[in-house]
TrEMBL record:
<protein>
    <submittedName>
        <fullName>Transporter, small conductance mechanosensitive ion channel MscS family protein</fullName>
    </submittedName>
</protein>
<feature type="domain" description="Mechanosensitive ion channel MscS">
    <location>
        <begin position="194"/>
        <end position="260"/>
    </location>
</feature>
<feature type="transmembrane region" description="Helical">
    <location>
        <begin position="22"/>
        <end position="47"/>
    </location>
</feature>
<feature type="transmembrane region" description="Helical">
    <location>
        <begin position="145"/>
        <end position="166"/>
    </location>
</feature>
<dbReference type="GO" id="GO:0016020">
    <property type="term" value="C:membrane"/>
</dbReference>
<dbReference type="InterPro" id="IPR023408">
    <property type="entry name" value="MscS_beta-dom_sf"/>
</dbReference>
<dbReference type="GO" id="GO:0008381">
    <property type="term" value="F:mechanosensitive monoatomic ion channel activity"/>
</dbReference>
<keyword id="KW-0812">Transmembrane</keyword>
<feature type="transmembrane region" description="Helical">
    <location>
        <begin position="68"/>
        <end position="86"/>
    </location>
</feature>
<feature type="transmembrane region" description="Helical">
    <location>
        <begin position="172"/>
        <end position="191"/>
    </location>
</feature>
<dbReference type="InterPro" id="IPR006685">
    <property type="entry name" value="MscS_channel_2nd"/>
</dbReference>
<dbReference type="Pfam" id="PF00924">
    <property type="entry name" value="MS_channel_2nd"/>
</dbReference>
<dbReference type="InterPro" id="IPR010920">
    <property type="entry name" value="LSM_dom_sf"/>
</dbReference>
<keyword id="KW-1133">Transmembrane helix</keyword>
<keyword id="KW-0472">Membrane</keyword>
<feature type="transmembrane region" description="Helical">
    <location>
        <begin position="98"/>
        <end position="124"/>
    </location>
</feature>
Length: 368
């Protein structure tokens, strides 16, 4: 088939022998590019109609591969046209070099697309929306960090291979390798922040001290891990602010992870009451509040007197919930209902200050 296309092209060029070579070359190259674009448009119009009623994955697959296929068809068509057009040897060399660079870029683009499709297919088995999503967050974090690291390496390698096609750059690279002592130190120092975060990203993907949607406390702020990129982590704070931290922060600094082994948490409520407070009745009321709340997961409900102060005693109430958000709301609910119940039923149990009056001096003064 390629031979037939070549023969047809030669006949067309021969029929245009009256025109200048540069005009014929532009016509042949332009016609080849237009034919490739027309073929691509026709094929993807059919594919789009075929998948428009199917699930999101297939629609996304067609959309993701549209760009690489378009570029591949154009490069293929121009490579055939370069052998047909009446170009000079210098023009042919330049054109083929440009097509080689485009082909290298196409390979990198295809690898990035394949990486994205593989990650998407792999993560389809896990649902972050599930109540107990520890396994899903684990795999999603690993896959997305490694995907970004691999994408960075693909871009760097593709750019390096494309630059090595130039003789001047290739010779410079050889000479640089020959004297790589000082140059390696300089480049290493210049790329230290990038390399540091790149290595930290690999460490995070393997050891996973944090995962997507983990509840963490960093820099004294509570929030959820919203995004993990190849160089930084975005923490969505409780008041919708975003804290951006470098990846290396989570390797080098201590922080709290409330959902490291599971999403469920035990919430603590501290209450300070008078020594006359009815502890057994308060314990029964706590159980009643927990059982009547939709936020309680049915696992832990407990109350203990944990300390004595000068005027009050410290009561600790424990209740568990399925995740950090529910645990916080449940703690607030327990505080509100418990203090309201004490105010209504046992107002004397609220903290009071006592003053003792010595009546003996007053009686002596009255006798005088």
């Amino acid at each position: 088939m390629l031979e037939q296309i070549d023969e047809i092209g030669q006949e067309v060029v021969a029929s245009l022998s009256w025109a200048p070579d540069w005009a014929v070359s532009l016509l042949v190259l332009g016609a080849a590019a237009l034919l490739a674009l027309a073929l691509h448009r026709a094929v993807y119009r059919v594919l789009t109609r075929l998948v428009e009623q199917r699930e999101l994955f297939w629609r996304s697959l067609v959309q993701r591969t549209e760009g690489p296929v378009r570029m591949a068809l154009v490069v293929f068509a121009l490579s055939i046209a370069a052998g047909i057009a009446p170009l000079s040897p210098g023009q042919t060399t330049v054109l083929r070099h440009g097509l080689l660079i485009c082909f290298i870029g196409l390979l990198g683009w295809v690898m990035l697309t394949a990486l994205h499709i593989w990650t998407t297919v792999y993560l389809r088995r896990f649902k972050l929306e599930a109540e107990d999503n520890l396994l899903a967050r684990k795999h999603a974090t690993q896959s997305r960090i490694l995907q970004r690291v691999a994408a960075t390496l693909i871009v760097v390698i593709t750019a390096a291979v494309a630059l090595m096609t130039f003789d001047g750059v290739r010779q410079y690279g050889v000479s640089l390798l020959a004297s790589a002592g000082a140059a390696g130190i300089v480049v290493g120092l210049a790329l230290q922040p990038l390399l540091k975060n790149l290595v930290a990203g690999i460490q995070l993907a393997i050891t996973q001290p944090i995962r997507l949607e983990d509840a963490v406390i960093v820099e004294g702020e509570w929030g959820n891990v919203e995004e993990i990129s190849s160089t930084y982590v975005v923490v969505r704070l409780w008041d919708w602010r975003r804290m951006v931290l470098p990846l290396s922060y989570f390797i080098e600094n201590p922080f709290q992870n409330w959902t490291r082994e599971g999403a469920a948490l035990i919430g603590t409520v501290m209450l300070y009451v008078d020594y006359t407070a009815p502890i057994p009745e308060m314990r029964r009321k706590l159980e009643e509040i927990a059982k009547g709340s939709s936020r309680w997961d049915g696992k832990v409900v407990n109350m203990q007197v944990t300390d004595f102060k000068q005027d009050t005693m410290e009561v600790r109430m424990l209740v568990s919930a399925g995740n950090a958000g529910r645990a916080f709301d449940l703690r607030c609910e327990v505080r509100e209902k418990m203090i309201g119940w004490l105010q209504a039923e046992y107002p004397h149990a609220l903290p009071r200050r006592r003053a003792e009056i010595d009546r003996a001096p007053q009686a002596a003064l009255a006798a005088e």
